[in-house]
Write a structure and sequence with these properties.
The complex is a heterodimer.
Chain A (H helix, E strand, L loop, with lengths): L3 E4 L2 E4 L5 E7 L5 E7 L5 E8 L3 E3 L7 E7 L2 E6 L8 E8 L10 E2 L3 E5 L1
Parallel strand pairs in A: 2-11
Antiparallel strand pairs in A: 1-3, 3-8, 4-5, 4-9, 5-6, 7-8, 9-10, 9-11
Chain B lengths: L2 E5 L2 E5 L4 E8 L5 E7 L5 E7 L5 E3 L5 E5 L4 E6 L8 E8 L7 E2 L3 E6 L1
The chains are: A mainly beta, B mainly beta.
Chain lengths: 115, 113
């Protein structure tokens, strides 16, 4: 079973559309994250979320919003997509309270292309 | 604020040669340090981590890294490169646990037959 799974793996859409990327983890972790990887492979945190707190990177446009129906899911919704949103988006999870589990488990990524 | 710097965006080694990927960190408090590997079109996989226990950390696939506080470094090494090691490698730092890892800009490792 995949520990952190994202869907879809590829997403091609037109400018101005609204889209969602889904993420699910079956590790029992209590914190989930969204990262954006640009064309130069740079990884930038967008959000971290547990059932108590959402931390938003202040540089993330408010067109991006995380939605968590439960502890095992953190979806990413994007409104009014722009060309610059094209990137690979990674979901990750961790269990910060337990040092033995320090370090993220990543999903395989969603390659978003806005045309 | 914490950050990591990876020296060399591209490193090429011959198959069987030593692999050395450099990472220096900046942190005002004791850091937690990580190395991740990303194979083409895949997610990131944890290679190894330093969480204030032993300074020499052994990871998967024969990789290891040594935490050197005096040099603020956490370089990744492997004695003998294999073709399957070709990938992108990321150093990352966090403070106070696993929340909010800050990644370096990555080093692409090429292994020459």
């Amino acid at each position: 079973d995949t520990a952190v799974s994202q869907t879809p793996k590829y997403l091609v859409t037109q400018m101005g559309n609204d889209k969602s990327i889904k993420c699910e983890q079956n590790l029992g972790h209590d914190t989930m994250y969204w990262y954006k990887q640009d064309s130069k492979k740079f990884l930038k945190i967008m959000f971290s979320y547990n059932n108590k707190e959402l931390i938003i990177n202040e540089t993330v446009p408010n067109r991006f919003s995380p939605k968590s129906p439960d502890k095992a899911h953190l979806n990413l919704h994007i409104n009014s997509l722009e060309l610059g949103d094209s990137a690979v988006y990674f979901c990750a999870s961790s269990h910060p309270g337990n040092p033995a589990h320090y370090g993220y488990t990543f999903g395989s990524g969603t390659r978003l292309t806005v045309v | 604020a914490q950050s990591v710097t990876q020296l060399g965006s591209h490193v090429s080694v011959s198959e069987g040669a030593l692999v050395l990927l450099r990472c220096n960190y900046s942190s005002s408090v004791p850091p937690y340090l990580f190395w991740y590997v990303q194979y083409p079109n895949q997610g990131l996989q944890l290679l190894l981590k330093y969480t204030s226990a032993a300074t020499l950390v052994k990871g998967i696939n024969g990789f290891e890294a040594e935490f050197k506080k005096s040099e603020t470094s956490f370089h990744l090494t492997k004695p003998s490169a294999h073709m399957s090691d070709a990938a992108e490698y990321f150093c990352a730092v966090s403070v106070g646990g696993a929340n909010n890892l800050f990644f370096g800009t990555g080093t692409r490792l090429t292994v020459i037959p």
